[in-house]
Amino acid sequence: xxxxxxxxxxxxxxxxxxxxxxxxxxxxxxTKANTATLAVDAIGPDGETSxxxxxxxxxxxxxxxxxxxxxxxxxxxxxxxxIYAKADQLSGILLFAxxxxxxxxxxxxxxxxxxxxxLYSGSGITAVSTxxxxxxxxxxxxxxxxxxxTSGSIQTYVADMSGAPTITVARDGTSSIxxxxxxxxxxxxPSSYIPTSGATATRALETLVIPAAN
Length: 214
Hints:
mainly beta; six-stranded antiparallel sheet; 18 strands
């Protein structure tokens, strides 16, 4: 993306969000583990009630709390997974890629108080966080598939950053973060957010002509 002036973002290439439901994580396309019944119930980075409180159920004990989705991928291709996240009762998120040949089960923690990314496991994955205001961060991981990869799983976990980072959190019905705008796309950086609701969506490349006098 190229910033021209204070408010004009020009995308130099077309991009497709491969998630069919980028905001509604209640949809069955997202497999949930140890979550409460999710709902679009929080103010998102767009200022609307568009975000989801990713919260544990109240079964007791402690375990991982996450949602995930399998994705078909092309071989020898770079992909980026990004999502907007904000601290709630907890202040961490883990973005994780699994079941690919390359990378082999790896991901990064993101501290939603500072934006700092910390390697959880694996190699061949890079991480970026961007402060988008009002406590929200756009967190992303990027990796390149190998010549054998055709599919894998993209996973998002609630994380506790109060001590050593961990995805083992209390299932007390309150362990939570806020999430919005998931995007999985080809490319080495997250492009402008492409919302989806029932199907993948593509944004065309954009061009801008500036007269020489300007």
